[in-house]
Amino acid sequence: MTEYKSLPTAVCCRFIKSLLGHVQRVYEVSWSSDSRLLCSSSADSTIKVWDVATRKLLYDLPGHSDEVLTHVFHLWLIVLVEASELSI
Predict the structure, then answer these.
(1) Per the domain annotation, does 14 fall within a domain?
(2) Domain assignment present for 7
């Protein structure tokens, strides 16, 4: 059995900004490998890609047949793989 260690408790953190765009719950948020982009997948059947520096929406990727539960960034390209209950 794998033993998981808990992450250390943050000493200090602060709210910076909400990124508005999804109209239903967000399942996952992840950073690109260079930390310039943030990606979110949602129950609203979309994936959104945000510019971290400007905090603006760069890409809105609709058209998924169901809630988007997860996504993965490719290491060097803006290529996303998504999964929903229908595609798992």
Answers:
(1) no
(2) no
